[in-house]
């Protein structure tokens, strides 16, 4: 077994829409829908002058004068909807378009009535709402179509997002199972996490997570999504919640209740993937991010989150599978998976300054950067390396490995690390 760490959710499960709100995507999608709405309204309105008595320029000018204010209101409504996250899917766009059409039509027609010196009485209001199926019908149809079909597509393109209604599927040759080689389970960045970040980091976190899924799939991994935990800021760090050793899975036992709410979705997903679940009992505290797996050995960080009872309990659970457990003292409560990795050939890659007693490992290759040891083996020849560790990437190249730089900088700033963003099994 070369890389047996937590497993990552696949993109075969539909993902929930992130809450980041890129301004260029919002303005671009709202403007595109408004331009199409204006064009459709002008075209249909112009068709009404079938007598050809009026010159085309006068007909167009009249139509534009009638359509300009409703479309402007429609544009402002769509921009507001975009900042509320309601331009990402067709049905959200349809709802935003309906609101824009309603407000635009009412305000536009009411202004015309008042400008004509007429009172806004009951007769006027009846005419205003009746014209949605009359003079305002081209505006109504164009606005609904543009908001539901064009706006979400433009928004996704400018934001660099995958279509939200489309599920990503695992490669046909790979079965997503805890017992299958190359299975990865991931969980999207939560609403709570994104809302805690500034806009730039929130946008980057979503894009970087999508790119990480792509990296797994491009290297033959089957991926599956763990159900989202929108109210849990750390839930994207799904590697903290389970240790996957093929069929056997040991669930985390957090200290207190801070992350227990995240466990239900992980348990359900892994059970469906064929896992046999083991759990430790009190007084054990166990954080799977403290574990780094090698061939027949589990290195466990001591002095971080996992306590002595957790290490003893883990020894008892994994001994029947032929694993020995080696405790490695760490500094500053660092998770061991952030300071140590086992390469496919068995070489230990370590950030010595994160270890309290590096000698406990025997021989290892020291990395020059704090994030350098937080790598993931994609196959026997290829290592995913954080983009924040370019010197380590060069070092791995000298060791004969192919490397893939993965930018997870926004998630690192939020407290994460590359190995903690997935659950993985190669058993």
Descriptive report:
The chain has 427 residues and is of the alpha/beta class. It folds into 2 domains: 23-159, no CATH class; 183-425, L-arginine/glycine Amidinotransferase, Chain A (5-stranded Propeller), CATH 3.75.10.10. Helix content is 40%, strand content 14%. The chain is built from 11 helices and 15 strands. It has helices at 23-46, 56-83, 90-115, 122-130, 137-159, 191-196, 199-218, 263-272, 308-318, 390-398, 409-413; strands at residues 183-186, 222-225, 242-245, 248-251, 276-278, 291-294, 297-302, 324-329, 340-342, 348-350, 365-366, 376-377, 382-386, 402-406, 423-425. The strands form 5 sheets. A 3-stranded mixed β-sheet has the order 2-1-15, with helices on one face. The chain has a 3-stranded mixed β-sheet with strand order 3-4-5, covered by helices on one side. It has a 3-stranded mixed β-sheet with strand order 6-7-8, with helices on one face. A hairpin with a 5-residue loop joins strand 9 and strand 10. Residues 1-21 and 161-174 have low confidence and may be disordered.
Descriptive key words:
elongated, L-arginine/glycine Amidinotransferase, Chain A, three-stranded mixed sheet, single chain, 15 strands, disordered N terminus
Number of strands: 15
Number of helical segments with 4 or more residues = 11
Mean pLDDT: 84
Task: Sketch the topology as an H/E string, one letter per element.
Answer: HHHHHEHHEEEHEEEHEEEEEEHEHE
- The rounded distance between the terminal residues' Cα atoms is 6 Å
| Helical amount | 40-55%
CATH H level, superfamily name of the largest domain: L-arginine/glycine Amidinotransferase, Chain A
Query: Which topology of the largest domain does CATH recognise?
Result: L-arginine/glycine Amidinotransferase, Chain A
The share of residues in extended strands comes to 5-15%
CATH class of the largest domain: Alpha Beta
The tally of domains stands at 2
Biggest beta sheet attributes: 3 strands, mixed
Structural class: alpha/beta
Q: State the strand order across the main sheet.
A: 2-1-15
Give the CA-based shape.
elongated
CATH structural architecture of the largest domain: 5-stranded Propeller
Stretches where pLDDT is under 50 for at least 5 consecutive residues are 1-21, 161-174
Rg measurement, Å: 28 Å
